[in-house]
Amino acid sequence: MCFDWVFDAKAYGAYCVQLELDGIGALELNKELSGVKSGVGSAHNEARIQFEGFKNQRQSVEYSFSSRKHELEVAYRKRLTSILKVIRFLLLQGLPFRGHDESSTSSNRGNFLELLKWYSSECPEVAAVVGMNAPGNNQMIAPKIQKQLVHACAVETTNAILADLGDRWFTLLLDEARDCSVKEQMAVIIRYVNKYGEVIERFMAVVHVATTTAACLKEAIDSLFAKYGLSVARLRGQGYDGASNMSGEFNGLKSLIMKENPYALYVHCFAHQLQLVVVAIAQANQYVCDFMWIVGSIVNTSTSSCKRADKLRQLEHDRKVKFLERGEISSEVLQNLIDDSDRSSKGLSRTLVERMERYEFVFILLLMKRILAITNHLSTVLQEKDQNIVNVMHNINSRSRLKRDGKNVNLYHYYHVEIFCEVIDIILQEMDSRFSETTTDLLINMSCLDPRNSFSRFDAQKLVRLAHFYEDDFSWNERMLVEQELETYIDNVRSDERFEGISDLGALAKKMIEIMKNRVFPLVYRMIELALLIPVATTTVERVFSAMNIVKIDLRNRIGDEWMNDSLVVYIEKDVFNTVDNELILQRFQNMESRRMQLLCIR
Q1: Which of the ends of the chain has fewer CB neighbours closer than 10 A, N or C?
Q2: What is the mean pLDDT of residues 226-243?
Q3: Which SS3 state, helix, strand or coil, does residue 87 take?
Q4: Digit-coded pLDDT (tens) for 209-227
């Protein structure tokens, strides 16, 4: 006979009888055990029951501990995910996290705690793992935890941008501005062409700089490039304003970068240059300068008090349609101001009313309205994110063709020559001097890629010179073969109906990717990509500063540089952040330091 339970009990030290099996036969063993097995309450049965319970893992202490640990890990993941959803909402809206009083007795504990409280009240599953239902030492609502989760969000967003960039060429856009804490902040933007042929401008970081010297800015850029694994060798353009520390020929930032990489072409922000043209008009012509002063005085006088501002709104509401139909100018706010104000205001208002009613004021008003309408449209075009240098050159050239029409000579030589013609001359001179980049050989060569009017500006010889300029991007063999590829390319696209109606270089790049012409003509597409990389305006950088004024306000003026940068990365790059999976953020957060709980892996 075989008594497995006996040997099992012996093996585990749980004996019901003391047996020495060596030398005992089966018959004698049967005799020894016959009395032991009988009886429900016998010692043998008690030992057997305890041993079977010991063998059942679900009743063991180890299993009970591990089972409890598993439940805590599941609750930890749910808690962390719920808190991350709250943080996502606050980051996307640019809202502050902390409150003035976050104690349990406070009626307003801050956006983070209040939103988490509301979320738990609306979702029972969340309520079961947060607040009073969470362990006291694992609430996950401390300010340090909030900052670490925000940092994880920012890092994963930046990693997604860098993954999209890959090893492609890119352009650097930056500018600096002061925040509400009177700290100089440098915003960095990269511009690149993605795998779909689209021009992308992405925000990388805001860096606090001690000074705005070119050397200090260059050091900050080198540190940022090293952090994100970017190389100056892949830089193909620079876009800044016209300040000396940026555009200096010898010691400016552009010169320091071009010493390392001569292919990083610098372009002064076109939108900024256009603004300088308008300012030059207002300052160079005496009559326009007087007109601007009068307009400014009228605005200040009419809106310097709430009473005057309300009166202006009411009059405009009541008389707007009537005055538009008549073409008249209303000066009733100033007339009422003459009647209601003290002596000093009455004198100024009376003078302004008299100047407004002169023919000279009306003439310059209509002239400036026409000029500003042209520059405003061009300014709007320049501020588009996906704008390219070829399209901008076309728009600038078309807008600057203002003519001094001698056939419409006014009877009054004063208005025609000293005002109208002089203003037009100033515009033409300023446009030519400010936008000198449009006359450089490199950009003229790039303009030959313009697909308008069935590629009417195409010039193979100029494009060959473009390939020779970028020697590092075109090998010797490629420079020899590029002319032949250009001739084949132009015959192909002109005969292909799919390229009809394309009037923009960006649309041309996307179409080539779509129909896989970039593989057929790789050298031509490389030229198109280089042309698209040339910066047009630093409008994206200005948008960063607008966002900074939303995230860092006077009530949050003590926010740290890293905390502000992380918040801005997520707030500005919302579309990228929305594609980042929660699991990536949670895993990065978990690996930042040792945690009390382990993050349970998703199966």
Answers
A1: C
A2: 90
A3: helix
A4: 988 899 999 999 999 999 9
